[in-house]
Amino acid sequence: MKLEIAIVGAGHAGVEAAFALAAQGARVTLFSDEPCLPYFRPRLIAVAFGQAEPGAIAIKPQKAYDEVGIELRREAATAVDVQARTVNGRAFEGVILATGSRAFVPPFRGERGRARPLWTLADAEALRGLCAPGKALTVIGGGVLGLEAALRAAEAGLRVTLVEAAPALLGGCLGGDEGALRGALEAKGIALRVGVGVAAVEAGAVALEDGSVVADDVLLCSAGARPNGALAGAEGFIRTRPDLSLAPGVYAAGDPAQPTAERPVCQVRRAQLMGQLAARNLLAGLAGRPTEAWAEPALPLNLIAPGASVFVRGEVRGEGLEARALGGEGACEARTVFCRAGRPVGLRWVNTRKELAEWEKRLA
Known about the structure:
single chain, six-stranded mixed beta sheet, FAD/NAD(P)-binding domain, alpha/beta, 23% helix, 8 helices
């Protein structure tokens, strides 16, 4: 008899877990609350600005699910009983909760509803209908997704202003190399307002805290995400044991699962790795074998968009680091190696890939 496993959520963690379990002979039911095939979320930005079609960003085609016997149910899991291992009234031998995240829009004063998120395919398609060449777009948020949205919008012919309340882009991880990124953004025609927050959202404009006003036709908010899940606590976390379990035969994976981190970590590779581990541990636990503890990985930071790129690897902040600037071929390029006791432990490349692969192999 094949094990009957339910996975609640068809994002990166859920899909990864589903195929890992199916490869081991389990019969998997994958619950999704969206009417489309599961998709690669970062590629939504390209859909929003007309640089990719919705069907091109699917994680896998329908044929792949059919071939391994995964039942993809486009049905929200509205009733989950952890102790009974039931989903929507149906009993399973194992359950993985991979409920993902939702976009966070701060409680702006004024016309808050004008601030559009970009977190689902429906969001991307709605933006695509609004963002025509020549229109003015304001992007709130200077993280990876906000920067890529600004760059792709500029590539699509929009007039773009990017607003970031913090004093630096990308959480300040670029240090002295941020000037290279800013130069590339400005070369694409993107107006930068860094270090100034939003005072209010108005009809057709955003009022900033320094008293200035940015007029626009469309307002995109890229201010991060918050984990989903009916089983989550007040902060949206599903607090798990170190091996990602909640109860016998029940595990969590992806953004809501927080066995170690104290804040939401919404990163594709992390979700995939967590989905793989949850699948392995579920099978091991049901078979009475030892399970593995989750270890937070050192994840790379990548920004790859028309006109600009950033690659951060390993340690680039902290005490005891020696920064060695390798330089770039132009004013908008930078390469910096970070060493500890003479050994390279971190890399920061801006707008170039020159020798990146070679230095990655040398990281301690």
